Amino acid sequence: MSDLNEFSKTAPKLETVDAESIPSVVEPRSGSSKLKFGENTSRKKNIPKGLWTKCRKCAELIFDKDLDDNLKTCPTCGFHFPISARLRLASLIDEKSFKELDAGMTSVDILEFTGVDSYSSKLEKYKDKTGEADAVITGVCKMQHHKVAIGIMDFSFLGGSMGSVVGEKLTRMIELGTKNKIPVVIISTSGGARMYEGMFSLMQMAKTCGALAYHSEANLPYISVLTHPTTAGVMASYASVGDLILAEPGAMIGFAGPRVIKDTTQAELPPGFQTAEFLMDRGMIDAIVPRNKMRHSIINYLDYMSANVSKPKAKRAVKKKTS
Ligand SMILES: [Zn+2]
User: Fold this and answer.
1) Where does CATH 3.90.226.10 sit in the chain?
2) How far is the CA of 120 from the centre of ligand 1 (A)?
3) How large is the C-alpha radius of gyration of the chain?
4) Least confident stretch, 114-128, 135-149, 292-306
5) Does residue 38 contact residue 59 with C-beta atoms inside 8 Å?
6) What does 31-78 look like in DSSP terms, one character per residue?
7) Third-level CATH fold of 85-313
């Protein structure tokens, strides 16, 4: 029995898959249906643990190795599963080109926040769980011929929330980009500002956008990539001010969640509200790019944007000479 419980923890939806498919076959003999379920359970016991994942969209069972090979996207319907910041980083940049910045920077429980759990104990828990010091990894890397300052958020660390460390690490990375005259790419996924740091986390919105403004003044490209979900304080600051805004298919993007908006406005929301596709139709997003094409697309866009960066500068130089 304990074996069965343990199994259902690792593959929680397997029971449902068979239960759904069997009744139509065995319905006429309802008395024997229990036996049929039992038979199937014993068959499922033979499936080794942690090898299969059920797609949340199309319910297909995916071999975990196939899921990993496919950058955590469903080979059948293209559903994008969550992916860790490190795996995403590896999928985007040139091998062995990453120099991490401020890897050891960690948050301080400045407000001595206590709820069900204290903030400091939560921090420790998530550090152990994810192996990361906070919800963002920043650094400098190469993407083919482009040197890029990059920041990648990790939703598995406290919901990718933006506290002082996330804001500071991103700001330093952007400032390094400005100083070295290189493009900035930020891949966001976040529930918003980190409530455990109150006003200090809200201040990160202005700080990161200020650094991006200097980067923009230097005529340097900034690509913002929105992944599921990008919401609240992060969407209301650096994630939404990209020169180019890309999104992964099906990502939920917005300020407040659809349920909150529906409760507040008491109005029916249109279908697909706050998805990447919905925002793309309304001009909030420039392109929707599947995960397996993201590296290639970013490099292409950087080629184009970098080429365009040099043109206005040349024009300005000509103007100065003639005047
Ligand atoms: Zn699927």
Assistant:
1) 85-313
2) 38
3) 23
4) 114-128
5) no
6) GGHHHHHHHHHHHHHTSPTTSEEE-TTT--EEEHHHHHHTTTB-TTT-
7) 2-enoyl-CoA Hydratase; Chain A, domain 1 (3.90.226)
Indicate the DSSP class of residue 193.
B
Token pair 């209301």 in the structure block, residue:
236
Per-residue pLDDT band for 112 (boundaries 50, 70, 90) equals confident
- 295 C-alpha to ligand 1 centroid (Å): 22
Please name every residue paired with 80 in a beta bridge, in sequence order, or none if there are none.
Answer: 73
pLDDT band at 257 (very low <50, low <70, confident <90, very high): confident
Residue 244 has pLDDT above 80, yes or no: yes
Compute, in angstroms, the gap from residue 253 CA to the centroid of ligand 1: 21
The more confidently predicted of residues 17 and 319 is 319
- Say how many Å lie between the CA of residue 54 and the centre of ligand 1: 8
Q: Which of 2-6, 171-175, 188-192, 224-228 has the lowest mean pLDDT?
A: 2-6
Q: Rounded to whole angstroms, how far apart are CA atoms 93 and 284?
A: 26
**Neighbouring C-alpha atoms within 13 Å toward the C-beta of 84:** 10
| 134 CA to centre of ligand 1 in angstroms | 31
Angle made by CA atoms 83, 88, 91, in degrees to the nearest 5: 130
CA distance 303 to 191: 32
Fill in the DSSP letter of residue 252.
Answer: B
pLDDT at 42: 46
What pLDDT is recorded for position 310?
A: 52
Strands of the chain (E only): list them: 52-54, 61-63, 99-101, 136-143, 146-153, 184-190, 222-231, 244-247, 253-254, 287-288
Identify the H or E element spanning 259: helix 258-265
